[in-house]
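Example 3.
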Amino acid sequence: MIFRQLFEPVSCTYSYLIASRRGGEALILDPVLEKVDRYLQLMRELDLRLVKAVDTHLHADHITGLGALRDRTHCITVMGEQSSVDVVSMRVADGDTLRIEGVSMDVIYTPGHTDDSYSFLMKDRVFTGDTLMIRGTGRTDFQNGDPRAQYESLFDRLLRLPDETLVFPGHDYKGDTVSTIGEERAFNPRLQVKSVDEYAAVMNGLNLPNPKMMDVAVPANMRQGLHQESVARRGWAYSAAAALEQVGRSGVVLIDLREQSERARHGSIPGSLHIPYPELQEAVGSGRLPRDLSVSADMHLLFYCAFGERSAMAVQAVQAAGLTTACHIEGGIDAWKKIGGALA
Ligand SMILES: [Fe+2]
């Protein structure tokens, strides 16, 4: 198991790099833009391949590294389904499992600091973002924060985890690095309240100044989407409506790049093949094509995913590898559903 807690000193942010083995897939939680070079260097040194970059919530105090990491590694970007960001590759919801090779995390919706705050539980440890911090909790006074929702997230979700569960927060301003659920229940001053009303009164009385970066960070973090127009300009994109006319035509092969859990939850376009994006990315990266694709190289390939990000990256990769019939569905299954496309 590779586990690295990385620190960004300006916003006192912790980012976490996780992988099951050297040479394998990696995931990064809450990366900071200014540290992207450092993360990439570390991943090269440890021979890791970044497949997912995840933000616990829309940050107000730093610019996320999600967009830059996606552009430089073609990884999948992940946030919760409530996030008001323009587009991420994959959205998760409470009860989902976030997976990479050899690692899985339970996805726990813990709103309150923001309405898109999530925590991630991985065996003996939980990544709590800005919901639960060491001897503190995340402020609830902007970005649709809500002290009552946070009280529930804390008392009904996180504090129900076993006492020995390690707590890795999204920030620490005093130099602490890790705590436990039991320790926080006993010693976190914000958790020594008797009711949701008392907690709300404490949080509403904090009167904190806005984060210095807020006016820059929030708008920047809302626009981290991949620019799918450049793919469209090369003639490699179908709108959902245009794709609808292609489905069922001979020679047209639809390829779903999402994960099985996304297919189960949202449905898929009838008759599509399934090649998860990381599989395609790894195959193309090592100079080959997945078997399903090489047999149909003369076919018209139409990739799709959740919102069009993974499929836009896939089209660019396979076009570069010589599959010149490849296109994708702009806006993914999300756009497909909006025009009433059939689902299997
Ligand atoms: Fe935050």
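The first strand starts at residue 2 and ends at 8. The mean pLDDT is 94.
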